[in-house]
Amino acid sequence: MKRLFAIVLVMILIVSMCACNDLQLPNNDSKQSQSENNQQTPNEEVCEHIWDDGIEVEGGTDAYLMEYTCTVCGEKEQYIITIIPPYPITENDIVNKVYVYEKEGFCGDCTIEIKANGTFTYYEGMLSSHIGSGEWTYTDTDRMLTLFEKMVRLDENGNWEQFTQSYSFLVEEDTLIFVNKESDNGLGNFLYVKVKDGEKFFAR
Questions:
Q1: Is residue 118 pLDDT above 90, yes or no?
Q2: Sign of the CA dihedral 103, 107, 108, 112?
Q3: More confident of the two residues 173 and 28
Q4: How far apart are CA 203 and CA 191, in angstroms?
Q5: Which of 10, 150, 167, 196 has the greatest number of C-beta atoms within 10 Å?
Q6: In this predicted model, what pLDDT tens digit does every residue of 39-91 receive, in sequence order?
Q7: What is the CATH number of the domain that holds 156?
Q8: Are 65 and 145 part of one and the same domain?
Q9: How many domains does the chain have?
Q10: What is the C-alpha separation between 191 and 184, in angstroms, rounded?
């Protein structure tokens, strides 16, 4: 009986060893591969776009289409730009106001007063004895204000003659912008204060 029990025990041990040989344990390579598969792929880096000045790809009277390109990644975006008509400036918007030159006048402020009766007066500063005056015209289509001042000067023969000096300004809201090419520079500019093209007078 003991001999039979020993034989059975040996057979059980043999079967157990065979089962262990059939079982394949993962090697180091498979562990590394599994670890790599478990790692999450990092998110792609987001481009901090730097857009160019854009080009107009489609025009219109009320709006137009602009296309902008990122100078870093080349991505493109399009935007519809609505055309806002300029604020209409009428004579009522510019009259009864005093406009002050943005720079120093002839020791003090150089000012232009636009009056509702169609006349103007300008002062170049405290040290100027000249007080300019005359009439003005305004065209709202191009927003051009022109001042006409009657003055006198000596002609080639030494005689006094009368002439008209004009000063032109592009009008923006509460701002007069001197336009030299549209002005009749008979004396080169104002009498003492020499205003340069593009310089401004602001409503006070």
A1: yes
A2: negative
A3: 173
A4: 22
A5: 167
A6: 545 556 788 889 998 898 887 777 888 999 999 999 999 988 877 666 789 99
A7: 2.40.128
A8: no
A9: 2
A10: 13
**Which residue is associated with the tokens 């880096």?**
45
- Give residue 77's domain range: 49-85
Contacts 24+ apart (CB under 8 A), 158-167: 164/134
Quick one: 104 and 185 in the same domain?
yes
Q: How far apart are CA 120 and CA 135, in angstroms?
A: 6
- Nearest of 178, 181, 152 to residue 165 by alpha carbon: 152
Residue 10 lies in a domain: no
Asked whether residue 6 is domain-assigned, the answer is no
CA distances from 97 to 92, 116, 172 (A): 10, 9, 13
Tokens of 80: 């519809």
Strand-by-strand arrangement of the 63-69 sheet: 55-58, 63-69, 76-82
Measure the CA–CA gap between 129 and 177, rounded to whole angstroms: 25
Q: Mean pLDDT, the chain, as a whole number?
A: 80
Continuous segment of H or E residues that includes residue 89: none
- pLDDT confidence of residue 121: 96
Query: Is pLDDT of 187 > 60?
Result: no
Cα 70 to Cα 58: distance, rounded to the nearest angstrom: 19
